[in-house]
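TL;DR need structure tokens for one chain.
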Amino acid sequence: MRALVSRLDSFGDVLLAGPAVRAVAARADHVTLLCGPLGEPAARMLPGVDEVVVWDAPWAGFDPPPVRPAEIAALLPRLAADTALVLTSFHQSPLPTALLLRLAGVARIAADSEDYPGSLLDVRHHRAPHAHEAEAALDLAAAAGFPPVDDGRLRVLPPPGTTALTGDGPYVVLHPGASVPARAWSPGRCAEAVRELTAAGHRVVVTGGPGERDLTAYVAGGTGLDLGGRTDAPLLAGVLAGADAVVTGNTGPAHLAAATGTPVVSLFAPVVPAERWRPYGVPHVLLGDQRAPCADSRARTCPVPGHPCLESVTAQDVVAAVEKVVSAR
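>> reply
TL;DR here they are.
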């Protein structure tokens, strides 16, 4: 049996699909993961994936491309499968992807759908209210005939060793960047946290992507180790796996830390619900006002002057939260 799992949005979203992918892989001879460009690095780290197909869908992402019929025609032969799961967030429709898979000849398609699916779905599942994204994906897989086969935690393939980057000895990671501004703690607060964590006896490693080197240099200052722009996804997984704890916003590295088993201090802006997107399966502390006016708005830029939901969090709050998750490990 050839199976296909689709998760077309971001890096962290694909990581949250991992437990469902493993459930499918336990019963399928071949698993294809259909993902978008932002999710590709995560897709290539998931256990159970035999093939990754990358496509920038016109109905996904922050900056979706136009519909290109020739591109879709070229994609269809790559989607050959006997059965498929279409994984989406609670606010997304699976039906455009289901139509694509029907055109590709997939015989059996399962998805969560509140909208009437017509003949596009064979298994129309309704996700449980308030379910975490990882649990919702597992529930759908079970409804489609792929029950859980393990503890359901996030996992990635074993990452490379990173002592050459981090040096010897314990450390805490602070990742100041975020996928959208509304989810980011301010650079000034991050820099304060590095200084306070260092004063509390922690060695601090600051991580970030190639476009965040100025940010990580500022945040690291004279006390933190700046790894900005020096880690691809597997190396970042290795750095996070070696940490005592990871401090970051609601962004991909929070889920990558959880996938390596590392506790997370989550600076969680409530623009999306924490019950669905919190770090999953590891000790964690949520910081930030979850009842702020921006709650559930899905805003990309904070609509409230001063970003109070996160700016109310202090460096001392982060130090206390790090101590708590480290002791719970």
